[in-house]
Write a structure and sequence with these properties.
Length: about 450
């Protein structure tokens, strides 16, 4: 990666990993009443649920800031969810951050187009990467093919070592590109001297994509410097963040918590205690493998449709009938391509859709889909298909299937959100054995559980 992009990566790494930690850390340092970072949280005027979340974040900060002489190395995966992949978004670059006693020892950044050349050929990629993208060898850039981040983290580490990487990582952190918008929601709009337009919480990701891919050439900026705007934007955001009041910093901290809850930031630690805390907070991006009742997860993978996910809107209707001798489920998923014409970043949408259901489910009918794929993964059954949505059009696909009886005893439903999937609205209908019907309207901003609603 170009040197001009280095400060951008440093900023995001520190902001996401340590901004809240710094806040708590300095509270502890300046107030002898507090013995640990976690003890600060008890004095915050927030709900008990948020306190629990902040304590989890504080424990991560204490791990990083602890003066124990131990070197801690993090593998940072930068995912562009305008090109959606099962684990969040296309991985275009990664960073390696070394910390010791709360200080940065070293940061190296790598463009995957260069690094993947060091990964040996011959590893067959999962379907349909080879068949659709015409990519015959599996590499780090496609390592996040699972909807389960712990699986992806281990796979990314494996490809890193195949590429002759020498670091032993303390943790792996995936960051989706729209986390940028979280900061701008608090700092407000930002302008950059010498560059047109304004970057705000609505347009920043799109404007950056345009500036790097198209604007730089129109402005006569050398190819090697086209990402310099990212560095300049990071510096401007950094100035505004450090100037925020404590109230605004706490507001930003809560927004970062939302990003964690939405899986726009996913954490994996090799330390078992930290990984357990990340899992308990639902920040590890894992598929719930212990869930024994009804289950649903919709997983899309952009198959060469450029950055078209920026324009895609998804919704679903899920209806379960428990009054029948054999319980059945009907799922309708609607895709709307809001772009009207092809341009430098979008064209007709093509996705590889996988619908994850309880193991033992059986597909009995489907509508408006092509060739079907079936498999078992992560303790679930999935139905898969390649699906196209032309520019400016809407398409609805439908799956009808039976549910195993083990999944409907003491009925409950867990719907898990795919990282990077944006806003997804849904309707859930449950017809119980006594014919009572309940209907729920949901915004799938994070994992959703029926028994909690």
């Amino acid at each position: 990666m170009q040197k001009s992009n280095r400060n951008f990566i440093i900023f995001w790494a520190l902001a996401i990993l340590f901004l809240v930690g710094w806040y708590f850390f300095w509270q502890v340092k300046s107030n002898k009443e507090f013995a640990t970072i976690s003890s600060v949280v008890d004095f915050l005027p927030i709900s008990e649920l948020k306190k629990a979340k902040f304590k989890t974040m504080a424990s991560f900060a204490e791990y990083v800031f602890q003066k124990d002489g131990e070197e801690k190395t993090f593998f940072l995966l930068f995912q562009n969810n305008m090109e959606l992949r099962p684990g969040g978004g296309y991985i275009g670059s990664f960073g390696i951050l070394k910390m010791q006693d709360g200080k940065i020892l070293e940061l190296s950044t790598h463009d995957l187009s260069n690094f993947d050349g060091r990964v040996p050929d011959g590893i067959i990629p999962p379907y349909p990467i080879k068949e659709t993208l015409k990519v015959k060898d599996w590499k780090l850039r496609d390592s996040n093919w699972s909807p389960d981040f712990p699986v992806n983290a281990v796979k990314a580490d494996e490809f890193y070592r195949l590429g002759q990487g020498q670091e032993n990582f303390s943790g792996v952190i995936a960051i989706n590109s729209n986390v940028l918008l979280s900061f701008l929601r608090v700092t407000g709009p930002i302008t950059i001297e010498g560059y047109p337009g304004t970057y705000d919480s609505e347009n920043a990701v799109l404007n950056l994509e345009y500036q790097v891919e198209k604007g730089a050439y129109q402005q006569g900026i050398a190819r090697g410097e086209r990402k310099s705007v990212m560095n300049l934007l990071a510096k401007e955001i950094q100035k505004k963040v450090f100037a925020l009041s404590l109230r605004e910093k706490m507001q930003l901290a809560e927004i970062i918590l939302d990003d964690l809850n939405r899986k726009d930031i996913q954490l994996y630690f090799k330390d078992e205690n930290l990984e357990r805390q990340a899992m308990n907070a639902a920040w590890d991006g894992s598929v719930n493998k212990n869930w024994s009742s009804d289950y649903l997860m919709l997983v899309d993978a952009n198959m060469g449709a450029l950055k078209s996910d920026y324009y895609m809107r998804r919704s679903f209707n899920y209806a379960v009938d428990l009054s029948k001798d054999v319980p059945t489920a009907n799922l309708k998923i609607t895709y709307t391509h809001t772009a009207k014409e092809k341009d430098w970043m979008t064209k007709d949408y093509l996705t590889y859709l996988r619908v994850y259901t309880p193991n033992g489910s059986w597909l009995i009918d489907s509508k408006n889909i092509g060739e079907k794929k079936f498999g078992e993964d992560l303790g679930k059954k999935y139905f898969g298909t390649l699906l196209g949505v032309p520019l400016g059009q809407t398409k609805t696909v439908e799956f009808s299937y039976t549910l195993p009886k083990t999944a409907v005893e003491n009925y409950d439903l867990l719907i898990q959100r795919q990282s990077g999937s944006g806003e997804v609205k849904g309707e859930v209908t449950v017809i119980y054995k006594n014919q009572n019907k309940m209907v729920y309207q949901i915004d799938l901003l994070k994992d959703w559980k029926l028994s909690e609603n």
